[in-house]
Write a structure and sequence with these properties.
By secondary structure, the chain is mainly alpha-helical. Helices cover 54% and strands 7% of the residues.
Protein backbone atom coordinates (compact mmCIF):
# COMPACT_ATOMS: atom_id res chain seq x y z
CA UNK A 1 0.00 0.00 0.00
CA UNK A 2 1.12 3.55 -0.64
CA UNK A 3 -0.37 7.01 -0.26
CA UNK A 4 -1.05 9.66 -2.90
CA UNK A 5 -1.67 13.32 -2.05
CA UNK A 6 -3.53 15.49 -4.59
CA UNK A 7 -2.91 19.20 -4.03
CA UNK A 8 -5.32 21.49 -5.87
CA UNK A 9 -6.66 25.09 -5.60
CA UNK A 10 -9.02 25.66 -2.68
CA UNK A 11 -12.42 27.31 -2.64
CA UNK A 12 -11.00 30.67 -1.52
CA UNK A 13 -8.30 32.65 -3.37
CA UNK A 14 -4.67 31.72 -2.56
CA UNK A 15 -5.68 28.58 -0.73
CA UNK A 16 -4.96 24.91 -1.38
CA UNK A 17 -6.71 21.71 -0.46
CA UNK A 18 -5.04 18.32 -0.14
CA UNK A 19 -6.76 14.96 -0.59
CA UNK A 20 -5.06 11.73 0.46
CA UNK A 21 -5.73 8.52 -1.51
CA UNK A 22 -4.45 4.99 -0.93
CA UNK A 23 -3.62 2.35 -3.54
CA UNK A 24 -2.17 -1.14 -3.65
CA UNK A 25 1.10 -1.83 -5.49
CA UNK A 26 -0.06 -4.33 -8.16
CA UNK A 27 0.78 -3.00 -11.62
CA UNK A 28 -2.82 -3.05 -12.81
CA UNK A 29 -3.80 -0.98 -9.76
CA UNK A 30 -0.95 1.43 -10.49
CA UNK A 31 -2.23 1.94 -14.04
CA UNK A 32 -5.73 2.62 -12.66
CA UNK A 33 -4.20 5.09 -10.19
CA UNK A 34 -2.55 6.98 -13.08
CA UNK A 35 -5.85 7.14 -14.96
CA UNK A 36 -7.63 8.38 -11.82
CA UNK A 37 -5.08 11.15 -11.37
CA UNK A 38 -5.57 12.28 -14.98
CA UNK A 39 -9.35 12.26 -14.51
CA UNK A 40 -8.87 14.58 -11.53
CA UNK A 41 -6.80 16.99 -13.65
CA UNK A 42 -3.39 16.25 -12.17
CA UNK A 43 -0.58 17.46 -14.47
CA UNK A 44 2.60 17.25 -12.33
CA UNK A 45 3.62 14.24 -10.24
CA UNK A 46 6.50 14.03 -7.75
CA UNK A 47 7.60 10.92 -5.88
CA UNK A 48 10.44 9.82 -3.62
CA UNK A 49 13.07 7.42 -4.90
CA UNK A 50 12.84 4.08 -3.10
CA UNK A 51 15.02 1.74 -5.15
CA UNK A 52 13.37 -0.88 -7.31
CA UNK A 53 9.97 -0.11 -5.77
CA UNK A 54 10.00 3.24 -7.59
CA UNK A 55 10.17 1.77 -11.10
CA UNK A 56 6.66 0.23 -11.45
CA UNK A 57 5.03 3.43 -10.18
CA UNK A 58 7.18 5.62 -12.41
CA UNK A 59 6.52 3.59 -15.57
CA UNK A 60 2.79 3.38 -14.88
CA UNK A 61 2.69 7.18 -14.65
CA UNK A 62 4.84 7.65 -17.77
CA UNK A 63 2.30 5.68 -19.82
CA UNK A 64 -0.08 8.66 -19.64
CA UNK A 65 0.37 12.26 -20.75
CA UNK A 66 1.40 13.95 -17.51
CA UNK A 67 3.26 17.22 -18.01
CA UNK A 68 6.02 16.16 -15.63
CA UNK A 69 6.84 13.03 -13.61
CA UNK A 70 9.70 13.67 -11.20
CA UNK A 71 11.63 11.30 -8.92
CA UNK A 72 13.45 13.12 -6.11
CA UNK A 73 16.08 12.22 -3.54
CA UNK A 74 14.32 11.47 -0.21
CA UNK A 75 17.06 13.33 1.67
CA UNK A 76 15.88 16.58 0.02
CA UNK A 77 12.48 16.33 1.71
CA UNK A 78 13.28 14.58 4.96
CA UNK A 79 10.70 15.00 7.74
CA UNK A 80 11.41 15.92 11.33
CA UNK A 81 11.91 12.99 13.66
CA UNK A 82 8.64 12.00 15.25
CA UNK A 83 6.54 13.72 12.54
CA UNK A 84 6.82 11.14 9.76
CA UNK A 85 3.84 9.30 8.33
CA UNK A 86 3.09 8.24 4.76
CA UNK A 87 0.20 10.73 4.55
CA UNK A 88 2.22 13.72 5.78
CA UNK A 89 5.16 12.70 3.58
CA UNK A 90 3.17 12.77 0.33
CA UNK A 91 1.41 16.02 1.32
CA UNK A 92 4.76 17.67 2.09
CA UNK A 93 6.22 16.51 -1.25
CA UNK A 94 3.31 18.08 -3.13
CA UNK A 95 3.66 21.37 -1.25
CA UNK A 96 7.45 21.60 -1.68
CA UNK A 97 7.25 20.73 -5.37
CA UNK A 98 4.57 23.34 -5.98
CA UNK A 99 6.90 25.96 -4.45
CA UNK A 100 9.77 24.88 -6.71
CA UNK A 101 11.91 23.55 -3.85
CA UNK A 102 12.41 20.03 -5.25
CA UNK A 103 14.46 19.04 -8.29
CA UNK A 104 14.17 15.78 -10.15
CA UNK A 105 16.87 13.13 -10.10
CA UNK A 106 18.52 11.68 -13.19
CA UNK A 107 16.40 8.81 -14.58
CA UNK A 108 18.10 6.78 -17.35
CA UNK A 109 16.41 5.81 -20.59
CA UNK A 110 15.18 2.26 -21.14
CA UNK A 111 18.21 1.37 -23.31
CA UNK A 112 20.64 2.76 -20.77
CA UNK A 113 18.82 1.00 -17.94
CA UNK A 114 19.36 -2.34 -19.68
CA UNK A 115 23.11 -1.72 -19.94
CA UNK A 116 23.16 -0.54 -16.32
CA UNK A 117 21.47 -3.70 -15.05
CA UNK A 118 23.93 -5.91 -16.93
CA UNK A 119 27.05 -3.99 -15.86
CA UNK A 120 25.92 -4.02 -12.23
CA UNK A 121 25.25 -7.75 -12.40
CA UNK A 122 28.71 -8.24 -13.90
CA UNK A 123 30.26 -6.37 -10.95
CA UNK A 124 28.39 -8.60 -8.50
CA UNK A 125 29.46 -11.72 -10.42
CA UNK A 126 33.12 -10.65 -10.36
CA UNK A 127 32.83 -10.01 -6.63
CA UNK A 128 31.33 -13.48 -6.13
CA UNK A 129 34.20 -15.01 -8.13
CA UNK A 130 36.73 -13.13 -5.99
CA UNK A 131 35.06 -14.46 -2.83
CA UNK A 132 35.22 -18.01 -4.20
CA UNK A 133 38.92 -17.63 -5.02
CA UNK A 134 39.52 -16.46 -1.46
CA UNK A 135 37.68 -19.53 -0.13
CA UNK A 136 39.90 -21.73 -2.30
CA UNK A 137 42.98 -20.05 -0.83
CA UNK A 138 41.69 -20.60 2.72
CA UNK A 139 41.09 -24.29 1.99
CA UNK A 140 44.68 -24.64 0.76
CA UNK A 141 46.02 -22.78 3.81
CA UNK A 142 44.01 -25.07 6.08
CA UNK A 143 45.78 -28.03 4.47
CA UNK A 144 49.20 -26.44 4.94
CA UNK A 145 49.62 -25.80 1.19
CA UNK A 146 51.41 -22.43 0.86
CA UNK A 147 50.87 -22.03 -2.89
CA UNK A 148 49.73 -18.42 -2.49
CA UNK A 149 53.05 -17.53 -0.85
CA UNK A 150 55.02 -18.48 -3.97
CA UNK A 151 52.63 -17.98 -6.90
CA UNK A 152 51.33 -14.49 -7.64
CA UNK A 153 47.79 -15.87 -8.05
CA UNK A 154 46.30 -19.27 -7.39
CA UNK A 155 44.08 -19.15 -10.49
CA UNK A 156 46.89 -19.03 -13.05
CA UNK A 157 47.54 -21.91 -15.44
CA UNK A 158 50.42 -23.41 -13.51
CA UNK A 159 48.75 -22.99 -10.10
CA UNK A 160 45.50 -24.46 -11.43
CA UNK A 161 47.36 -27.52 -12.76
CA UNK A 162 48.97 -28.04 -9.33
CA UNK A 163 45.61 -27.79 -7.52
CA UNK A 164 44.01 -30.23 -9.99
CA UNK A 165 46.87 -32.67 -9.39
CA UNK A 166 46.37 -32.36 -5.63
CA UNK A 167 42.67 -33.10 -6.07
CA UNK A 168 43.49 -36.14 -8.21
CA UNK A 169 45.68 -37.58 -5.44
CA UNK A 170 49.24 -36.44 -6.15
CA UNK A 171 51.05 -35.51 -2.91
CA UNK A 172 54.74 -35.36 -3.87
CA UNK A 173 55.92 -31.75 -3.73
CA UNK A 174 58.65 -32.16 -6.35
CA UNK A 175 56.22 -33.70 -8.86
CA UNK A 176 53.67 -30.96 -8.23
CA UNK A 177 56.31 -28.23 -8.54
CA UNK A 178 57.34 -29.63 -11.94
CA UNK A 179 53.91 -28.50 -13.26
CA UNK A 180 55.01 -24.87 -12.97
CA UNK A 181 55.23 -22.82 -16.13
CA UNK A 182 56.85 -19.50 -17.07
CA UNK A 183 58.81 -17.58 -14.45
CA UNK A 184 57.87 -20.06 -11.73
CA UNK A 185 60.31 -22.54 -13.27
CA UNK A 186 63.35 -20.61 -12.04
CA UNK A 187 65.63 -22.55 -9.67
CA UNK A 188 64.68 -20.59 -6.55
CA UNK A 189 60.96 -20.74 -7.32
CA UNK A 190 60.96 -24.50 -7.96
CA UNK A 191 62.64 -25.17 -4.63
CA UNK A 192 60.12 -22.99 -2.79
CA UNK A 193 57.21 -24.59 -4.65
CA UNK A 194 58.38 -28.06 -3.70
CA UNK A 195 58.25 -27.08 -0.02
CA UNK A 196 55.04 -25.03 -0.34
CA UNK A 197 53.11 -27.94 -1.92
CA UNK A 198 53.95 -30.40 0.88
CA UNK A 199 51.22 -30.41 3.52
CA UNK A 200 48.40 -32.45 5.08
CA UNK A 201 46.08 -32.38 2.06
CA UNK A 202 43.28 -34.86 2.83
CA UNK A 203 40.24 -36.11 0.96
CA UNK A 204 38.10 -33.48 2.64
CA UNK A 205 40.39 -30.71 1.37
CA UNK A 206 40.22 -32.25 -2.10
CA UNK A 207 36.41 -32.12 -1.95
CA UNK A 208 36.45 -28.48 -0.88
CA UNK A 209 38.91 -27.51 -3.60
CA UNK A 210 36.85 -29.37 -6.21
CA UNK A 211 33.71 -27.48 -5.18
CA UNK A 212 35.51 -24.14 -5.25
CA UNK A 213 37.15 -24.85 -8.60
CA UNK A 214 33.81 -25.83 -10.18
CA UNK A 215 32.16 -22.72 -8.79
CA UNK A 216 34.97 -20.50 -10.11
CA UNK A 217 34.60 -22.07 -13.57
CA UNK A 218 30.84 -21.35 -13.54
CA UNK A 219 31.44 -17.74 -12.55
CA UNK A 220 34.15 -17.33 -15.20
CA UNK A 221 31.69 -18.50 -17.84
CA UNK A 222 29.04 -16.15 -16.44
CA UNK A 223 31.39 -13.15 -16.66
CA UNK A 224 32.33 -14.04 -20.26
CA UNK A 225 28.65 -14.35 -21.19
CA UNK A 226 27.83 -11.00 -19.58
CA UNK A 227 30.72 -9.34 -21.42
CA UNK A 228 29.23 -10.43 -24.73
CA UNK A 229 25.71 -9.29 -23.83
CA UNK A 230 26.93 -5.92 -22.55
CA UNK A 231 28.99 -5.35 -25.70
CA UNK A 232 25.90 -6.04 -27.83
CA UNK A 233 23.70 -3.67 -25.80
CA UNK A 234 26.33 -0.89 -25.79
CA UNK A 235 27.09 -1.17 -29.52
CA UNK A 236 24.66 1.68 -30.25
CA UNK A 237 27.07 4.05 -28.45
CA UNK A 238 30.26 2.84 -30.14
CA UNK A 239 31.43 6.39 -30.91
CA UNK A 240 31.08 7.45 -27.27
CA UNK A 241 32.77 4.24 -26.09
CA UNK A 242 35.76 4.94 -28.37
CA UNK A 243 36.00 8.47 -26.99
CA UNK A 244 35.96 7.16 -23.41
CA UNK A 245 38.65 4.57 -24.18
CA UNK A 246 40.97 7.37 -25.25
CA UNK A 247 41.07 8.46 -21.58
CA UNK A 248 43.95 6.86 -19.60
CA UNK A 249 42.79 3.90 -17.51
CA UNK A 250 39.51 3.46 -19.41
CA UNK A 251 39.07 0.05 -21.01
CA UNK A 252 35.99 -1.77 -22.24
CA UNK A 253 34.70 -2.59 -18.75
CA UNK A 254 35.05 0.96 -17.36
CA UNK A 255 33.65 2.55 -20.54
CA UNK A 256 30.61 0.25 -20.48
CA UNK A 257 30.06 0.95 -16.79
CA UNK A 258 30.17 4.69 -17.53
CA UNK A 259 27.62 4.32 -20.36
CA UNK A 260 25.32 2.31 -18.08
CA UNK A 261 25.58 4.54 -15.00
CA UNK A 262 26.01 8.06 -16.44
CA UNK A 263 25.16 7.71 -20.10
CA UNK A 264 26.69 8.75 -23.44
CA UNK A 265 25.81 12.46 -23.03
CA UNK A 266 26.30 13.55 -19.39
CA UNK A 267 26.26 17.24 -20.38
CA UNK A 268 22.54 16.96 -21.16
CA UNK A 269 21.69 16.09 -17.56
CA UNK A 270 24.52 17.72 -15.62
CA UNK A 271 25.30 21.38 -16.31
CA UNK A 272 29.00 20.99 -15.44
CA UNK A 273 31.52 18.37 -14.40
CA UNK A 274 31.26 19.76 -10.85
CA UNK A 275 27.57 18.78 -10.75
CA UNK A 276 28.42 15.33 -12.08
CA UNK A 277 31.22 14.85 -9.54
CA UNK A 278 28.78 15.81 -6.77
CA UNK A 279 26.23 13.29 -8.08
CA UNK A 280 28.89 10.54 -8.16
CA UNK A 281 30.15 11.79 -4.75
CA UNK A 282 33.76 12.07 -5.88
CA UNK A 283 34.11 15.61 -4.57
CA UNK A 284 34.90 16.46 -0.93
CA UNK A 285 31.96 17.40 1.24
CA UNK A 286 31.63 20.72 3.04
CA UNK A 287 31.63 20.71 6.83
CA UNK A 288 32.17 24.28 8.05
CA UNK A 289 30.86 25.63 11.33
CA UNK A 290 31.81 28.86 13.17
CA UNK A 291 34.37 29.56 10.41
CA UNK A 292 36.11 26.27 11.17
CA UNK A 293 36.53 23.82 8.34
CA UNK A 294 36.22 20.26 9.59
CA UNK A 295 36.86 17.01 7.77
CA UNK A 296 34.51 16.73 4.79
CA UNK A 297 34.40 13.19 3.44
CA UNK A 298 32.94 12.10 0.13
CA UNK A 299 29.39 10.79 0.18
CA UNK A 300 28.02 7.29 -0.24
CA UNK A 301 26.47 7.76 -3.70
CA UNK A 302 27.97 6.31 -6.87
CA UNK A 303 28.08 2.80 -5.43
CA UNK A 304 28.90 1.23 -8.80
CA UNK A 305 30.60 3.92 -10.89
CA UNK A 306 32.91 5.30 -8.17
CA UNK A 307 34.84 2.02 -7.65
CA UNK A 308 35.22 1.75 -11.42
CA UNK A 309 36.73 5.24 -11.64
CA UNK A 310 39.09 4.47 -8.75
CA UNK A 311 40.11 1.25 -10.53
CA UNK A 312 40.76 3.28 -13.70
CA UNK A 313 42.81 5.76 -11.65
CA UNK A 314 45.13 3.02 -10.35
CA UNK A 315 45.65 1.92 -13.95
CA UNK A 316 46.20 5.46 -15.24
CA UNK A 317 48.98 6.36 -12.78
CA UNK A 318 51.06 3.39 -13.92
CA UNK A 319 51.71 5.13 -17.25
CA UNK A 320 54.11 8.05 -17.46
CA UNK A 321 52.07 11.16 -18.13
CA UNK A 322 50.15 14.04 -16.60
CA UNK A 323 48.06 11.87 -14.28
CA UNK A 324 51.10 10.09 -12.84
CA UNK A 325 52.77 13.46 -12.23
CA UNK A 326 49.63 14.78 -10.53
CA UNK A 327 49.39 11.68 -8.34
CA UNK A 328 53.01 12.06 -7.18
CA UNK A 329 52.48 15.74 -6.39
CA UNK A 330 49.31 14.98 -4.40
CA UNK A 331 50.96 12.18 -2.42
CA UNK A 332 53.76 14.54 -1.41
CA UNK A 333 51.23 17.18 -0.40
CA UNK A 334 49.10 14.78 1.67
CA UNK A 335 51.93 13.23 3.67
CA UNK A 336 54.38 11.30 1.50
CA UNK A 337 54.77 7.76 0.18
CA UNK A 338 54.96 6.22 3.64
CA UNK A 339 51.49 7.50 4.54
CA UNK A 340 48.76 5.10 3.31
CA UNK A 341 46.11 7.77 3.83
CA UNK A 342 47.96 10.09 1.48
CA UNK A 343 47.81 7.52 -1.32
CA UNK A 344 44.08 6.95 -0.78
CA UNK A 345 43.32 10.65 -0.92
CA UNK A 346 45.51 11.09 -3.98
CA UNK A 347 43.93 8.22 -5.91
CA UNK A 348 40.45 9.57 -5.14
CA UNK A 349 41.57 12.93 -6.54
CA UNK A 350 42.85 11.18 -9.69
CA UNK A 351 39.47 9.44 -10.07
CA UNK A 352 37.85 12.88 -9.83
CA UNK A 353 40.22 14.14 -12.54
CA UNK A 354 39.32 11.19 -14.78
CA UNK A 355 35.62 11.99 -14.34
CA UNK A 356 36.23 15.59 -15.44
CA UNK A 357 38.28 14.45 -18.44
CA UNK A 358 35.62 11.94 -19.54
CA UNK A 359 32.89 14.58 -19.17
CA UNK A 360 34.77 17.04 -21.39
CA UNK A 361 35.70 14.35 -23.93
CA UNK A 362 32.05 13.36 -24.40
CA UNK A 363 30.88 16.97 -24.43
CA UNK A 364 33.41 18.12 -27.03
CA UNK A 365 33.42 14.92 -29.08
CA UNK A 366 37.22 14.91 -29.39
CA UNK A 367 39.56 12.20 -28.03
CA UNK A 368 41.79 12.91 -25.04
CA UNK A 369 45.20 14.35 -25.87
CA UNK A 370 47.97 13.56 -23.37
CA UNK A 371 49.69 16.85 -22.32
CA UNK A 372 52.82 15.03 -21.12
CA UNK A 373 54.54 14.28 -17.84
CA UNK A 374 55.97 17.81 -17.68
CA UNK A 375 52.54 19.44 -17.82
CA UNK A 376 52.72 20.88 -14.31
CA UNK A 377 56.37 21.96 -14.54
CA UNK A 378 55.67 23.79 -17.80
CA UNK A 379 52.72 25.53 -16.17
CA UNK A 380 54.85 26.90 -13.31
CA UNK A 381 56.58 30.26 -13.76
CA UNK A 382 60.37 30.46 -13.15
CA UNK A 383 59.77 32.74 -10.16
CA UNK A 384 57.47 30.17 -8.51
CA UNK A 385 60.00 27.39 -9.11
CA UNK A 386 62.82 29.52 -7.67
CA UNK A 387 60.76 30.42 -4.57
CA UNK A 388 59.99 26.73 -4.00
CA UNK A 389 63.65 25.74 -4.21
CA UNK A 390 64.59 28.56 -1.84
CA UNK A 391 62.07 27.29 0.70
CA UNK A 392 63.56 23.81 0.44
CA UNK A 393 67.05 25.21 1.11
CA UNK A 394 65.72 27.15 4.11
CA UNK A 395 64.34 23.91 5.54
CA UNK A 396 67.71 22.20 5.14
CA UNK A 397 69.67 25.14 6.63
CA UNK A 398 67.38 27.21 8.91
CA UNK A 399 68.44 30.83 9.36
CA UNK A 400 70.85 30.83 6.43
CA UNK A 401 71.06 33.64 3.87
CA UNK A 402 70.61 32.52 0.28
CA UNK A 403 72.21 34.57 -2.51
CA UNK A 404 71.42 33.68 -6.10
CA UNK A 405 73.74 34.81 -8.91
CA UNK A 406 72.61 34.09 -12.43
CA UNK A 407 75.46 34.05 -14.95
CA UNK A 408 74.85 33.99 -18.71
CA UNK A 409 75.96 30.85 -20.53
CA UNK A 410 79.40 30.86 -22.10
CA UNK A 411 77.99 30.89 -25.62
CA UNK A 412 76.31 34.23 -24.89
CA UNK A 413 79.49 35.94 -23.66
CA UNK A 414 81.25 38.37 -26.06
CA UNK A 415 84.58 37.22 -27.57
CA UNK A 416 87.55 37.75 -25.25
CA UNK A 417 85.38 38.08 -22.13
Amino acid sequence: MFKVAIRSPGEKPWTRKTEILEFRTFYGVLQEMARELRRRGVTHVVMEASGVYTEPVYHALCELDFTQVVVINPAHAKALRGHKTDATDCARLAELFECGLLHGSFVPSAEQKEVRDLTRYRIKTVQARTSEIQRLGKALESAGIKLGSVASEITGKGATAMIEALIDGERRGAVLADLAIGRMRSAGKLADLSMALAGRFTGHHALLCRLHRDRIAVLDAAVDGLDGRIAGKAARWQREADLLKSVPGFGDVVAQAWLGEIGPAPHRWFASHEKLACWVSLCPGNNISAKKRKHGRTGDAGTYIKPMLVQAAWSAIRVRGRLQARYNRLVRRFGGDKNPGAKKKAITAIAHTLLKIAYQVLKSGTPYQEPGADFYTRRESPAQKQAYLERQLQKLHPGCTITITISPPEAALPPGA
